[in-house]
C-alpha cells in the first residue's frame, strides 16, 4: 500500500533551478522570437493550477523554453506531457527533465504553427463533443509574435472540431500580452472589445485567470502578461462557417470608432453598397448607429445569419474583396488620368 501511494505521488527529484539551467546551457532570450522566460516556479505552479486537475491527464505544452512550466506540469502528476519546441538551444535542458521523469515527457523539435496534433494522444481519450472535455489540456507561455495567429488557428480548429479538438472540447490555458488577454475577454461596450473578443467568445467560454507582472519575466517585457483559459462551447453562439464569421467581424471592426454601418458596408461592392448595407442591418435588427464595440454576440449572430442568406442568393458575394475593388479603381483612375491603357503593363 505504501509503495502504491509513493508511485501515485510523483515529484521531480532535486534539479538545477531554471536560472541555473539558463546559465549552464548559455541560454539567452532572443528578441526576434519574442522570448521571455518565466523563472518563478510559484507562478508556473499557479498557471498549472488554473488549468484544472491534471492528475493522470495528457498535456500538450507549447514552447516550453527552459522548462519552467514543464516542471510544474510534471509535478501535477500528469500521465504524459508532450512538448513542442522550435529553438534547439532548449532541447538539452528539456532532455534533463525527461531523464528525471522517465516515460512521462516527450520532446518534439518543431514549430507549433505547423505541428499536427491529431495523432499525438491515444484514441481512447476521445470524447463526444457533447460530453465533458477530454483529459487533454493545452498549456503555453506563448511568444508574443505567435500568440494571436496561433489562437486564431486553434479557434478555427474548434469550429471544425479538428486539430487538437479531434479529441473533443480540449481546454487551453495560454499566456498573452495583457492587452490581448483583455481583448479576448472584453464584454459588450468595453473599449477593449475587438475582433478577437467575438471570434473567441462565440466558440469558447473565455476567462482571464490572472495577470503576471512583466518584472516576473527575463528579460522583462514592456507589458504585463495575462493568463487566459479557454473551454470550447458545446454549441457555438454563431452557427456559421468560421471564415464567414471572421469576414463579417473583421469588416465590422475595420472602422471601430465609426458607426457599425461603415464597416458592414465594405462587405458589399460599391455599386449596391448602400442598398445592401441597409437591407442587412434591417433584417438583422441592428441599429446602424451603434459602434462596433457596442454590438453583442447576438448582434453578430444575426448579422452573420443574414449575410449567409445573402451569399446563398449571390454566390459571388462571399469572394468580394473591398481592398481589391479599391485597387482596381485606382488602376482605372491612373489609366484615365494618363489617357491610355499602356500603363497597365507596368502595374
TrEMBL record:
Belongs to the class I-like SAM-binding methyltransferase superfamily. rRNA adenine N(6)-methyltransferase family. KsgA subfamily. It comes from Phascolarctos cinereus (Koala). Its EC number is 2.1.1.-. S-adenosyl-L-methionine binds at residues 36, 38, 63, 85, 111, 141. The keyword Aminoacyl-tRNA synthetase does not apply. It is found in: Mitochondrion. GO terms for molecular function: DNA binding; mitochondrial transcription factor activity; RNA binding; rRNA (adenine-N6,N6-)-dimethyltransferase activity; S-adenosyl-L-methionine binding. The keyword S-adenosyl-L-methionine applies. Transmembrane segments: none annotated. One of its GO terms (biological process) is transcription initiation at mitochondrial promoter. NCBIfam families: ksgA (TIGR00755). SUPFAM superfamilies: S-adenosyl-L-methionine-dependent methyltransferases. Gene3D superfamilies: Ribosomal RNA adenine dimethylase-like, domain 2 (1.10.8.100), Vaccinia Virus protein VP39 (3.40.50.150). Residues 43-234 form the Ribosomal RNA adenine methylase transferase N-terminal domain. This is rRNA adenine N(6)-methyltransferase. GO terms for cellular component: mitochondrial matrix. Keywords: DNA-binding, Methyltransferase, Mitochondrion, RNA-binding, rRNA processing, S-adenosyl-L-methionine, Transcription, Transcription regulation, Transferase, Transit peptide.
Amino acid at each position: 500500500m505504501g509503495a502504491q501511494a509513493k508511485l501515485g505521488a510523483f515529484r521531480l527529484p532535486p534539479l538545477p533551478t531554471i536560472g541555473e539551467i539558463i546559465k549552464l546551457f548559455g541560454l539567452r532570450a532572443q528578441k526576434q522570437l519574442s522570448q521571455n522566460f518565466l523563472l518563478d516556479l510559484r507562478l508556473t505552479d499557479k498557471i498549472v493550477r488554473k488549468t484544472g486537475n491534471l492528475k493522470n491527464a495528457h498535456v500538450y505544452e507549447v514552447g516550453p523554453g527552459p522548462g519552467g512550466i514543464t516542471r510544474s506540469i510534471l509535478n501535477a502528476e500528469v500521465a504524459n506531457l508532450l512538448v513542442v519546441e522550435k529553438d534547439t538551444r532548449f532541447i538539452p535542458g528539456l532532455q534533463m527533465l525527461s531523464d528525471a521523469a522517465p516515460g512521462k515527457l516527450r520532446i518534439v523539435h518543431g514549430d507549433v504553427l505547423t505541428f499536427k496534433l491529431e495523432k499525438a494522444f491515444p484514441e481512447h481519450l476521445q470524447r463526444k463533443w457533447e460530453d465533458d472535455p477530454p483529459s487533454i489540456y493545452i498549456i503555453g507561455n506563448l511568444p508574443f509574435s505567435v500568440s494571436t495567429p496561433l489562437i486564431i488557428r486553434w479557434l478555427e480548429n474548434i469550429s471544425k472540431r479538428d486539430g487538437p479538438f479531434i479529441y473533443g472540447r480540449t481546454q487551453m490555458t495560454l499566456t498573452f500580452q495583457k492587452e490581448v488577454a483583455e481583448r479576448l475577454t472584453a464584454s459588450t461596450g468595453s473599449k477593449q472589445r475587438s475582433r478577437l473578443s467575438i471570434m473567441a467568445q462565440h466558440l469558447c467560454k473565455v476567462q482571464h485567470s490572472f495577470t503576471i507582472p512583466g518584472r516576473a519575466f527575463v528579460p522583462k517585457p514592456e507589458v504585463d502578461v495575462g493568463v487566459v483559459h479557454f473551454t470550447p462551447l458545446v454549441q457555438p453562439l454563431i452557427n456559421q462557417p468560421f471564415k464567414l464569421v471572421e469576414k463579417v467581424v473583421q469588416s465590422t471592426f475595420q472602422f471601430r470608432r465609426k458607426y457599425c454601418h461603415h464597416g458592414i458596408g465594405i462587405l458589399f461592392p460599391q455599386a449596391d453598397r448602400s442598398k445592401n448595407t441597409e437591407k442587412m442591418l434591417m433584417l438583422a435588427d441592428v441599429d446602424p448607429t451603434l459602434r462596433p464595440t457596442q454590438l453583442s454576440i447576438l448582434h453578430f449572430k444575426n448579422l452573420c445569419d443574414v449575410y449567409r442568406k445573402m451569399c446563398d442568393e449571390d454566390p459571388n458575394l462571399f469572394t468580394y474583396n473591398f481592398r481589391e475593388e479599391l485597387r482596381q479603381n485606382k488602376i482605372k483612375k491612373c489609366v484615365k488620368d494618363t489617357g491610355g491603357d499602356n500603363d497597365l503593363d507596368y502595374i
